[in-house]
Each structure stands twice: as structure tokens, then as C-alpha cells.
Amino acid sequence: MRFKVPRRQPESFRASALYLAGEIKGLSPDRVEFVEVRNLFTDNARAASSVMEATAAKSVRCKQPAYHFMITFDPKDAAAGKVTPELKRKVAQQVIERMGLTEHQLMVYSHQDTEHPHMHFLVNRIHPQKHVAYDRHQDGKRLTGIVHELAREHGLNILRNREYERQLGRDVDDLAPALSDGEYWKARREEREALIPLGKVATADLRRRLKDDFYQSRTWAELNHRLTRKGITLERKGQGLILSDGERFAKLSDMGKGVRFNTLEERFGERFDDFMSSRAAEIARDDREGQLALDTSDLEPEERRTVEGMLAGDIDTSPEGDAVRRADQADMDYRYWIQIEAAYRSRKGRVRYAEQQEVWHARQAEREAGWITKREASFLEGLAKVYKDANKARARWDELEKKLGIKEAEDAIRKDPFLLGAIKGVRIGDYRTRERAEAKKSFRYIMQRRQKLRDARLKHGQAHHEIEQARRRTKAAVRELEIIQNIAGSPAELRKRLAAKIAARARALERLSEKALKRANLADDRKEQLERAWRMHKKRQLERERTKERGRPFGLDLDLFDD
């Protein structure tokens, strides 16, 4: 949810009410889902606006009595079936009460003509009895608190109000968006901070740092390796990709004109989800088998020691070095499995979307079949008004179309209507009976009805074609999901594995020290990323200790409530 108070407020109740009701030329009343009124005897736009204007005229001091604001809902909530008309009415009532507008004249229009379900509030600031204007001072601040409260009460998403932030003079790009409860608790479970978007300056800096990596990479694996060395991972988010350092993120599309999800998939010749599936298979195999030891059984002792010494030459074997190496590996494993989980979710979403499209096209085919029935009845009705035997006339028309073609058959019938049979009524010279005159008048529209019948049949055939296409897409999406399921396991197994990676990462970070991190032989970007993860882990540890301390006098383990 979010609110919007337009800077330009209405100058006329009547014009605003007619616009919101869809009674202005070019608009349709179908856009209105329902209308609610308060302290008005009618919901008719013209009558109600006249009453509001008469009430507003009783105040001489108020120059702008009309007050308009909107409440908007998240399309995701609407898709989930949360935004019902009943909920909208309840929210409207609660907004009116908490804004202190219960005694004022107002109209609430719920519109359904956009992707975002929304409601318009048209309020008369002049009190009908006291004739005092409603004070709009800090109405944006009040609406912010009300919208946030109602969203939490009804389990709805809180959308970011960028326009209000700009009005307050804030730098929109440096502010974190409102987080959903799901993202907040997910971040807490995984002992990380919720991802926030980078600002314009930081995004431009990241684009400059990664420019060569994007243009020089030839495969997803090479790009992933290059970005990992700089502490950046590619992660699925919705239908696209983001670049994350574990704390902040930027969209892939922000990395330049040539860096687009589809463009990279075409250049690399591999879909990102397929790459993640193969990467998941490699990691799962390593988890099962462990790192394969180098086979030096056929070497002499001196040769074996030489090879092993070369392999271990750059490895810090001290306890501090071992702790850093284990933490680095555990953190990378965790981040890889986070990406795999995102790819898994993406494929599940693709299957769900494909199935929804298949159902939609099936319903569309049913509607088109209904239109064929209606068009056939209309066509026969038209023939019955002209010809004595409508069925015989239709059969002859079909034969002519098969023999001559559609256009030629129409031209022939237009020149000689008797090709289809005997026409109703009688004509003697210029005299026509009433039936013949009616038949001549109706004959003009037969061609149009025949064309509409043909169009309905074409649309029905197209709908069946779309159903077949949707079925193929569904099968392909299910096949892709099964591939990653065979690798990553069921959703429960994947969650279990991810939980194990989170626990392993926490244990590895526990053994780290600030001194070891400073001495670590890692790239600066990777070292900075690992240090952030370590500090976040310490912060969570401190929070848990404080929680336990607060509950100890009461014999409670308050940390259990977080879980």
C-alpha cells in the first residue's frame, strides 16, 4: 500500500466527480468498481458534487475546499487475492476515521482500470455544520503512518512513496525501500542484512568497475568467476538478475546498454538458469564426494613431495589462515546455494505462469466459441429476414464460397441476391410489399453479419492455437523445473541444505578474528565482503546475548520467539 496526494488539487467538485465516475467523454463508467459516500444522500456524481459545492460556498475564507488523495495497493497483493472489494471498503472506512474525516462530505471511488488497484478520495474540507475547513497540515505524514499501520494490520505490502520523499527534499536513491515481512525475517534467518538498492553514484561506480568484466567474459562461468573475485554475485530477482555484495544490490540493467539479461544469454549461448543447474550439480557432487585428492601413487617419493609442495606453496597453513580459508569457502558455498534457490524459485514461477496462461487461453477459447454461436444466430436471423428458407440460403452461400472464394461469392450474391433462393415478399414494377421492402433493407447488413461470423471463427481458431502454444510452454517449464529438482532435490531438501550452509557459515565466521581478516591473502573486494559478513555475525551474536539477558530474570529464553 501507499498513498498519493496530487500537488494540483481539484478546483471543481463537479468536474472531479464526473471524471472519477467515468462520465466524461472518452472514459467509461466500467472503470469504477464501487462508490462509497459519506454524509451525502446520493452517490450520483452530479447531484453529490452539487451538494458539496453548496456546502463549500458557506465558507468565505477557504479558497480550495476540494481535497483529493489516493490509496494504492501492490499488484502482487492483488494477484494473491488479498485486495478484495470488502477489504477496500474496510480500508477506506479506516482511513476516513483515522484522518478525522468522518463528519465531512466525501466520495470514495474504487478503480479497476490499471495494474495497481486503487481508490480515490474526494473530500469536502468544509464541515457541513461548523463550516470550518479541515486542516491539511502535515497530511502526508499522517497518511504515511496510517498506510503503514493498515498494511501491517491487513498483511499487505508497503510500497515506497518516492513522490512524497521528493516533496520532502530527500535523495530518493539513497533511501532504502520499505521491506516486506518476508524479506525481513528471511534476512534474519540467514544472518544477513536485508538487501537495499544502491544509489545513483554507487551504481555508476559499480558500472565503471565491472564494465570490462561484462564485455570480456565469454561464458556465465567466466563472468561469475570475475565478479566473485570482486566480491559480487549474480542473483535471481523476479524475472531478471541483480548484482549483490551481500548488503546492497543493483539491477543488471543498470550496468549499461549492452548489459541485458537476454543479451548475455544470447552471447553466452546458455540460459542463466541452465548454468545455475549445472553449477548446482557440481556443488552437490562436491558435497557428496568431497574434494578429490590428487593421485600421486605412481610418483616417486621425491616427485610426490615436490608436487604437494607446489600445490601448498601459496596456502597459509597457520591457524589464522585456515580460519580465513574456511570462512571464505563457507561464505561462497552459502552464496552459491542462495543463487541456486533463486533459480529454483524462478523456474517454479515460470511453471506457475505457464499454467495460468494455459487456463486463460482455454477460457478465451470458450468465450470465442460463445461468440461463434451468437454470430451464427445473428447471421441466420438476417437471412431469415430476407429469404423464405434461411437454412437453404446459408447452404448455398457456403457452396458458393467453396466454389468461387469469399470475395467473389460476396460480389456474386450482391449482384444477384436470388442465387441464395427465393426472397420474401412481392415486387411488381416499382411497387414492393412490406415484406419485400423489409427484405431489401435487411439485405444490406447480411454481408457484415457474415464477416463477423468469419472473424469469430478465426479468433476461435487462433485461441486454440494459443492453447497448444501454452501447453508446449508449460511442458518446457515443467521439464526445466524437473532438471533442477533432480539436482537440488525437493523444496524441503533444498531448504535443509541451505540451512546447513547457513549454519556452516556461522561456525566458520565464529572462528574468525579481526586480526586474521586484516592479514588474509584475499582480494580487497572479497576481504571487505567477508569482513561485513563477520561483523554482521558478531552483531547478531550480541543481539542474542542481550535477549537472553533480558529473559533470564523471568526464566524465559526470549531468543526462541525470534525463531
Give structural attributes.
563 residues, five-stranded antiparallel beta sheet, four-stranded mixed beta sheet, flat
Order of strands, widest sheet: 1-3-5-4-2
**Which band does the percent of strand residues land in?**
5-15%
Q: Can you give the mean pLDDT?
A: 81
In quaternary terms, these chains amount to single chain
**Biggest sheet details:** 5 strands, antiparallel
> How far apart lie the N and C ends?
27 Å
Query: Given the C-alpha coordinates, what overall shape results?
Result: flat
Task: Report the C-alpha radius of gyration, rounded.
Answer: 35 Å
Helix content: 55-70%
Number of helices: 21
What's the count of strands?
11
Structural class: alpha+beta
Uncertain stretches: 168-180, 289-294, 310-317
Question: In brief, what are we looking at here?
Answer:
The chain has helices spanning 13-21, 45-56, 75-79, 85-99, 139-154, 162-167, 181-189, 200-216, 220-229, 261-268, 272-289, 301-311, 319-386, 390-404, 406-415, 434-443, 446-488, 491-510, 514-519, 524-551, 559-562, and strands at residues 2-4, 32-38, 66-72, 106-111, 118-124, 196-197, 233-237, 240-244, 248-251, 427-428, 431-432. With 563 residues, the chain is an alpha+beta fold.
Topology, pairings included?
Elements lengths: L1 E3 L8 H9 L10 E7 L6 H12 L9 E7 L2 H5 L5 H15 L6 E6 L6 E7 L14 H16 L7 H6 L13 H9 L6 E2 L2 H17 L3 H10 L3 E5 L2 E5 L3 E4 L9 H8 L3 H18 L11 H11 L7 H68 L3 H15 L1 H10 L11 E2 L2 E2 L1 H10 L2 H43 L2 H20 L3 H6 L4 H28 L7 H4 L1
Parallel strand pairs: 6-9
Antiparallel strand pairs: 1-3, 2-4, 3-5, 4-5, 7-8, 8-9, 10-11
Helix pairs in contact: 1-2, 4-5, 11-13, 11-17, 13-14, 13-16, 13-17, 13-18, 14-15
